Every structure is written in structure tokens, then in C-alpha cells.
Amino acid sequence: MTMNVPGMRTRETPVDEARVLRLRRTFQARRERVFRAFTDPARLAGWWGPKGMSAPVCELDLRPGGRWLTTMRAEDGSEFTVSGVYREIDPPSRLVFTWAWRQDDGSRGHETLVTLEFLDRGEASELVLTQEDFRDEDARGKHAGGWASALDCLEEALAMDAAA
């Protein structure tokens, strides 16, 4: 399911690589399970966010044009809410959505675009994450650390799920 949105970046649009984050991670789980970890609210809430965070709010309207919102809570009680709109859903191989943090005044901050590609590697799968249109390299760097930690949490959740 693909949705064309006015102003949406096309593959022909030039990209400033300094404002693009690319991560690759291999999981010892089939890609269907990894895809489901991003698209099932109960599963997402079980691992979402960097280490030490919980996800008390996880709302997903999984359809092109559908909105999603999560709130991550740190151990000190501070909360961080991020939301967006699904642009493309192609189970179990691809998921594309916008991403913007809620600001202190309740508005949405700068919007980026996240593309997740789930590649079949037999009994394992490879996740290719691309997040683009960061304001600057500092924002990209902060997200790199956050995603790396969150993907560590996903890896742990998948391992626990397989052991159960």
C-alpha cells in the first residue's frame, strides 16, 4: 500500500547525505516477526525507545495516511512523544512513515522521514533503517544513538519472545 502525499520526497529528489541516518542490523528472527515488532502496538510497546525507557502510550493506525503516536518515559519520569503518518506499508518488507517530536508548546517539531526495509536472510533478517531530512548533523547524531539503543532493546525482545 503506497500513498503519494503532496511535497513527499521522490527517489529523484537530491538528498543531503549529512542530514541522513542509515543503520543496518541483523536479527535472529524472520522478517515477519521483526516487521510485526514495529506494527503491533503491544509488541512495539514492549521494546520501543532507548534502553531504560518504557512506552506507556503506543497508538498505531496502520494504513497509508494513518497516524501513529508513541510516548516514551524515562526512568526519572520525563516523557517524550513522537508521532507521524504512515506513507507506505508493504508487509513484511517495507514501512515508511514521518517522524516529529512533540514540542513543549504541544506543536510538532521538525519532521523527518523514516524508511524501514526488512530483508529476508533465511532464519534471520536484516533491517535497513534510513531517516532523512534532519535539520543538522547534531540531530542526526542524537537519533543514531537513540535508534542504536532501541534496536538493542528490539533484539532483546525478539530473543525473549523466541525463548518463550
Instruction: Identify the CATH class.
Output: Alpha Beta
Order of helices and strands: EHHEEEEEEH
Q: What coarse outline follows from CA principal-axis ratios?
A: globular
Tell me the fraction of residues in β-strands, as a range: 35-45%
Task: Spell out the CATH superfamily.
Answer: START domain
Report the CATH topology name: Alpha-D-Glucose-1,6-Bisphosphate, Chain A, domain 4
**Alpha carbon gyration radius:** 15 Å
The mean pLDDT is: 92
CATH architecture assignment name: 2-Layer Sandwich
- Helix % is 25-40%
Let me know the number of strands: 7
Largest sheet: 7 strands, antiparallel
> Which regions contain 5 or more consecutive residues with pLDDT less than 50?
2-7
Separation of the first and last Cα atoms = 33 Å
Within the largest sheet, what's the order of strands?
Answer: 1-7-6-5-4-3-2
- SSE-based structural type: alpha+beta
How many domains make up the coordinates?
1
